[in-house]
Automatic annotation (TrEMBL):
<feature type="transmembrane region" description="Helical">
    <location>
        <begin position="12"/>
        <end position="30"/>
    </location>
</feature>
<keyword id="KW-0812">Transmembrane</keyword>
<protein>
    <recommendedName>
        <fullName>Alternative oxidase</fullName>
    </recommendedName>
</protein>
<keyword id="KW-1133">Transmembrane helix</keyword>
<keyword id="KW-0472">Membrane</keyword>
Amino acid sequence: MAAEPYRLVHYLRFAFVFLVLLWIFVQFGGTGDARNQYTTLFRKFRDQRTVFVSDFLNHDVNGPYNGDGLSDLCATKKWTPGLLLTCDAVPGSMTDVKNGILTCMRVAIEIGAEIILPEIMLRSTMDLSDITPHDRGPRRGAPLEQFFDRAYLLNTMGQYCPELKIHESLNDFFDEPNVLTPVPLDLYKVPGIEIASNLPGSAGKLVVDKDKLGKQILDMINAKSPPNARQYPFRIAMRPTPSYFIPSFSDPPPLRRYFGRLLRVRPDLRALAAGMLFNLQKAFGLTIDPRQGIDVDAFVGVELRTQPDPLTFPAYEIQASDALSYISANNMSQVFLTEGATVDDAKAFATRCKDFGVNVVTKDDLVEGPDVLALSELSYDERFLVDYEVVLHAGLFTGNAQSSFAWNVGLRREFAFGEPGAANSSHLNGTLRWHSPYSTLYGKGHVGDDFRRAVWP
């Protein structure tokens, strides 16, 4: 009888080794249908939430990053070792900050310089409309990883644009005192720069011909400091760092569709969004698969902007009416409401939606366990980063054209899922500014035109 327990332990050892080898094969070996079958088998034995979050983190809505456009851009530039560009910290919302950092990177590429990535100037916690508190002298702020995934950025740039050398900070030049006295660069004061002040809605922000930008900047710098008499490293300091200066809409499609994806939301916020999306589908009885794009009938992402803001948004009644008209016209019954509305307005909107048989949830309704504390510790703009990851997976999305966030979401979803539609789509009420099969922005005239032309989503 004593041999029986021994034999059982012996068999269990073999079974354990077999399962380990099978797992290794599934993860690192096998191809085609065989690997897919084994992967599907293992998924059945894993926690559903864990699988969902893993799928979310490993799959972007646009699919894998395509760096062909970036590689082509970097390959056409003349690079000068020791030419260093630094940029003031970028203030504003998540989209303002993202576009400002990308603008700094793009200028560095255009002039063939090395770069220290700009920091993020955090808005006031006492007054959300104050995006540049204590704004004296060179702007300083939090590191880039406050919002974005620095490791992902460095790895992607290293693969597709290794010519652009990225330094950690000025500390890398502690033994080079000449970098402490940089040549200042204000993009709007570069000789020869033509600003598109005649474009409706641009507010005189966008450069007309970005292809001349690099030469114009270098001509100005060389006039101030002749290259043959220059000591390297030689620093150029861009002050301020504009968020909407380069017209991204005129970039070749392979570049415009993917340049903004260099700045991916930091991993812990993406994981938080994934958990919320999993709970959202459970609450509404939906089927959402992060590996498969979107289901247009899933839920509507809605942004209402009534919190204090540097920009002036339409009254709550107008925004709520537009959103409810959009929801009703599309026969939707589940809504995810993003950050941006006051507590009272969010409650009023949810109550009004109930009259139409529509359920409204927010981030706070969808967190549980440790995620509750994690969400409570986020800033206003960090909460928008979580919203961004959630509403990218919405079936439909609507917001106001005055919002850079709404343009970022709408354009990213256009690149991922569908082309823009006619601005006068007859099945929708309200004043339409921009419309695609999956996203609609409301607004009068040319409002938000600088966002539409300049955002890298």
